[in-house]
Amino acid sequence: MSILGKQTVQTAGGLTLKGIFKFLKFGSLFIIFGIVFAKAAIDSYSQKSFVPIIREIGGKLTLATKELADQSTAIIESGNIYVNSLWNIITTYAELIFAVLAIYAWIKLFAWLWARTPYSWPGNSFENTTIGVIVFAVFQVLFIVVVKAFAGEIHDWNDAGRAIAIPFIAFFLLFKAIVILINPVSKQIENLAS
Questions:
Q1: What whole-number distance in Å separates Cα of residue 107 and Cα of residue 140?
Q2: Rounded mean pLDDT of 119-147?
Q3: How many Å from the N-terminal Cα to the C-terminal Cα in the chain?
Q4: Alpha-carbon separation of residue 94 from 6, 34, 37, 99, 153 (angstroms)
Q5: pLDDT for residue 12
Q6: 11 located within any domain
Q7: Whole-angstrom Cα distance, residue 145 to residue 11?
Q8: Domain tally, the chain
Q9: Pair 53, 43: CB distance under 8 Å
Q10: Residue 48, Ramachandran bin (φ over 0: left; ψ between -120 and 50: alpha; else beta)
Q11: Residue 153: strand, helix, or coil
Q12: Phi/psi at 111 (nearest 5 deg)?
């Protein structure tokens, strides 16, 4: 169908390919959040209280880099998550993806907020994103240090230094965890190909 010289692709239901991808993107986000919420709800139900579900989802959103570091460390220490039950494998992947998406959402939020200040030039997305990353890193360091201090986990400057380093170490741990997650799958693909 041609509208004023522009080509559009339509299917029987009027859906475009762009619309299908948009649905899949939001659908997959909904599924990932649903899995994380279901795991938190199961934990909350077993303790017969709503506090664990609020604490777990809130912790995953506010302490996103700590959550990413914890999930990545658990994968690295276990060495192979594929020996667990299917539910554990699905929740491991979902929680890892959820942590990455939470970090992305925070950075986008801070970049969007910076773009609305009088100090930002319109359309300067690189500057806005850079400021968003810096503000996100500062907030994560503050959140992690405050939470660890209230939990009594900071006793000296070494403990504080380790807490400050968590947002930066989290991405290194993520890459190590991704290698561990991909390695067994790639070996299975090689075995099928030969």
A1: 11
A2: 88
A3: 46
A4: 40, 9, 10, 9, 28
A5: 46
A6: no
A7: 53
A8: 1
A9: yes
A10: left
A11: coil
A12: -65, -40
In which band, very low, low, confident or very high, does the pLDDT at 117 lie, cut at 50, 70 and 90?
A: confident
Tokens of 148: 């660890």
pTM over 0.85: no
Query: Domain limits at 120?
Result: 65-193
For 73-104, b/e burial (b = at least 16 CB within 10 A) is eebeeeeebeeeeeeeebbbbbbbbbbbebbe
Q: Is residue 10 part of a domain?
A: no
- In the predicted model, what is the mean pLDDT of residues 175-190? 76
What is the model's pLDDT at position 123? 78
| 41 within a domain of the structure (yes/no) | no
- The amino acid that residue 78 corresponds to is S
Q: How far apart are CA 167 and CA 33, in angstroms?
A: 22
What are the φ and ψ backbone dihedral angles of 2, each rounded to 5 degrees?
Answer: -115, 125
Dihedral, 39, 56, 36, 99 alpha carbons, nearest 10: -140
Specify the pLDDT at position 40: 78
* Adjacent-strand bridge partners of 3: 6
